[in-house]
Amino acid sequence: MAHRFMFATGIENSNPTIDGGRFRVDEYEKCGHYKYWKTDFELVQELKIHFLRYGPPIHKTFLSPGRYDWSFADETFGDLRRRKIIPIVDLCHFGLPDWLGNFQNPDFPELFATYAADFAKRYPWVQLYTPVNEMYICALFSAYYGWWNEQLTTDRSFVTALKHIVKANVLAMRRIIEVRPDAIFIQSESTEYFHAENPRAIKPAELMNARRFLSLDLNYGKRVESEMYEYLMDNGMTREEYHFFHSNNLKRYCVMGNDYYITNEHRVCQDGSTKSAGEVFGYYAITLQYYQRYQLPVMHTETNFWEGARGDESVNWLWKEWANVLRVRNDGVPIVGFTWYSLTDQVDWDTALRQNNGTVNPLGLYDLNRNIRPVGRAYQQLIHDWREVLPLQSICLVMPIEYPDKFEPGAQEIKRSAVAARNDQSTHSLLKAGQESNK
């Protein structure tokens, strides 16, 4: 089965700890998903959406090394497969189980890779993965801003979290490929930009604009800029650790998923402090920067907007983001999908999950009573209007994706050989191999 464009949504499974680790912000719990998961999957089908960013709650599933509670995952993933909804599996979304501690733990990467492999063995029909969600944001909010998990605020703690998080992602990809050789990894990473407010702010803005690429540079084995290399070395990364990222060439299995919100652009003051800039460049310009750097297929993996007092602000934002996606695509970037995130309203997103206020944020395609919002209807119409148009355009990359119910274990050895035969530096080799196997 070949897909030419992936219209997607997601069900928010963030679970960081706050308040010195004493409280876990479990968005599945706050948004009622544990209770209404069947209804939520029905809503995905109602919208005619075939792709869902979704994952098991790691803090309830990963109990200790080699010990798991798969009960909720068995129910939910079994139901997704029956419904022919293709999951993009989100294995770690901002939090870790209590026994693992936080992202300063050097044991986290290997333990997480084993968890990822065991998940892939239990659900071998799953093909699409985001092993660790928003690696840069996870490290930044946990170990530099001091909001989540370890709640640290130094460059050294940030670099420690970042190297552990990206290593975990790389090892997980490697282990999943051993189980599912045609796996495709859609990194969901926040695409940021920092604008200098005045000439004296140029230097700190330049540093921030270099630092925003670190997670993907390491993940894709790209040599970092000299100033960032010194930054990493000065803050605890060893040469051996740095070289690890260049010895794992998994880029050919990847799609560069990028997230864009109105909060992704920042004004930088001369003292290095920042404030929101609102939408200045927008998705189009910033996505081009990331594409030119990594030369990978792109998927818009997250966006949303508050419904607002008039009720049409989110609808207008959807239209604007879609116009940007089409502009990126028409300028020759192989963009393979778009995501409104998430399916339902979210809770306490207005404080970046760092406060437990119980504030419902009207950002979803449906409210928390599972009533459709205007943006839900608009997205449903957008999918209807564009689904049959996009495949006719040759610039749209064909994704070699199988429906879960069509998975045949024996066919994996054939695909393993096809992928191995194309084990080179080509960023699209896996996708091309998949295209040929789908002919």
What does this 3D model show about the protein?
By secondary structure, the chain is α/β, with parallel strands linked by helices. It has one domain (6-343, 373-437): Glycosidases (TIM Barrel, Alpha-Beta Barrel). The protein is built from 16 helices and 17 strands. It has helices spanning 27-30, 33-46, 58-61, 71-83, 108-122, 135-143, 155-179, 202-211, 214-219, 226-234, 239-246, 282-294, 313-330, 374-386, 411-421, 429-437; strands spanning 6-10, 17-18, 23-24, 51-54, 62-64, 67-68, 86-92, 128-132, 184-190, 193-196, 254-259, 265-268, 274-276, 298-302, 335-341, 346-347, 360-361. The strands form five sheets. Strands 1-4-7-8-9-11-14-15 form an eight-stranded parallel β-barrel, surrounded by five helices. Strand 2 and strand 3 form a beta hairpin. Helix 2 (33-46) packs parallel to helix 4. The N and C termini lie close together (9 Å).
Biggest sheet strand line-up: 1-4-7-8-9-11-14-15
Mean pLDDT: 92
- Percentage of residues in strands: 15-25%
Coarse shape: globular
Poorly predicted runs are: 420-430, 432-439
Protein name: Family 1 glycosylhydrolase
GO molecular function, one term: hydrolase activity, hydrolyzing O-glycosyl compounds
Biased composition (Polar residues): 423-439
Region (Disordered): 418-439
Question: In a nutshell, what does this entry contain?
Answer:
The chain contains 16 helices and 17 strands. It is an alpha/beta fold and 439 residues long. The chain has one domain (6-343, 373-437): Glycosidases (TIM Barrel), CATH 3.20.20.80.
